[in-house]
Design goal:
The protein is of the alpha+beta class and 113 residues long. It has a domain of 71 residues. Helices cover 33% and strands 29% of the residues. The chain has 3 helices and 4 strands, in the order H-E-E-E-E-H-H. The protein has a 4-stranded antiparallel β-sheet with strand order 1-2-3-4. The longest helix has 18 residues. It is globular.
């Protein structure tokens, strides 16, 4: 299997992804927020780019844009994916999936999570 990608195609794809993110971002609202103990109080904000299968991992790619521009990747094994799905079956998560759209116009975003 050939996993090589030319630099030109990668740059074009990154530009297309950035354009798509600008279209989706409204009033400073980002789909993803990240916190890390290594970054102190910093909250990274971004948008999902892609989900791909690479060997035995499901890779989620997220483009952070504020305050730094990074591509963050998370790899889930099959067991990790099953665990994530099981955690997603909590009643509070299902309620959020069903009724979360009602808060899109006026989101209440915590600073601590």
């Amino acid at each position: 299997m050939n996993n090589s990608v030319s630099v030109g195609n990668t740059q074009e794809r990154n530009q297309a992804d950035t354009h798509a993110m600008k279209e989706e971002k409204k009033d400073g609202y980002y789909s993803f927020r990240f916190r890390s103990t290594g970054l102190g109080e910093t909250i990274l904000m971004g948008e999902p780019l892609d989900v791909i299968v690479q060997d035995d991992l499901l890779i989620l790619k997220v483009q952070s844009t504020e305050p730094v521009r990074w591509v963050i990747r998370a790899g889930l094994s099959y067991r990790g994916l099953l665990k994530a799905v099981m955690l997603g079956l909590k009643s509070s998560v299902i309620k959020f999936l069903l009724f979360g759209w009602t808060k899109l116009k006026n989101p209440k975003l915590p600073t601590e999570f």
